[in-house]
Amino acid sequence: MLAGDLYRADDPVLQAEQRRAAALLEDFNNSPASDGAQRRLLLRDLLGTLGDDVEIRPPLHCDYGYQTHIGARTFVNVGLVALDVARITIGSDVQLGPNVQLLTPTHPLDAGQRREGWEAALPITLGDGVWLGGGVIVCPGVRIGDNTVVGAGSVVVDDLPPRVLAVGNPARVVREL
């Protein structure tokens, strides 16, 4: 799974890890906004890394949690979907708009393998200072360079270099920043 190889999502160990994440997410997503300390404890238990001064507004959704690593001073607006079958690395000083999707899972093109339940995953990396507008979708295996901005509603299917503005479906660089 972590190496991008095919795996079965119905593996009992993976299902137990998903149940653990689901319980922590339920507690986080239902916690009162006034209890920032409790929310931070839940996120520390859930996520692989949580930098200082990170704000994540519920609801948050992920598969495992421990595969997601978030740098310092990052802001995550409501509705982040982080399907962290492979590692998701979010740098420091990142801003994620509402309803962003970071999707690491992939599925075989062969229908028989899909019917048998085989899946794979590729990591996603967001560099420091990245800003993803509302509703951005980042596909498996994508790296977004430092200080890049991706416009709302864009679908990122290929790597983006540092310090550019990208928009559209598929996202295309429209200018340097």
Written description of the protein model:
With 177 residues, the protein is of the alpha/beta class. It has one domain (7-176): UDP N-Acetylglucosamine Acyltransferase, domain 1 (3 Solenoid), CATH 2.160.10.10. The protein contains three helices and 20 strands. The strands form four sheets. Strands 3-6-9-14-17-19-20 form a seven-stranded mixed sheet, with no helix packed on it. The chain has a five-stranded parallel sheet with strand order 2-5-8-13-16, with no helix packed on it. Strands 4-7-10-15-18 form a five-stranded parallel sheet. Strand 19 (164-167) and strand 20 form a beta hairpin. Helix 1 (12-29) runs antiparallel to helix 2. The longest helix has 18 residues, at 12-29. The termini are far apart.
Short description:
This protein has 177 residues and is of the alpha/beta class. The chain has helices spanning 12-29, 36-46, 111-115, and strands at 7-8, 49-50, 55-56, 60-62, 68-70, 75-76, 80-83, 88-90, 95-96, 101-103, 105-106, 118-121, 124-126, 131-132, 137-138, 143-144, 149-150, 155-156, 164-167, 172-176. It has one domain (7-176): UDP N-Acetylglucosamine Acyltransferase, domain 1 (3 Solenoid), CATH 2.160.10.10.
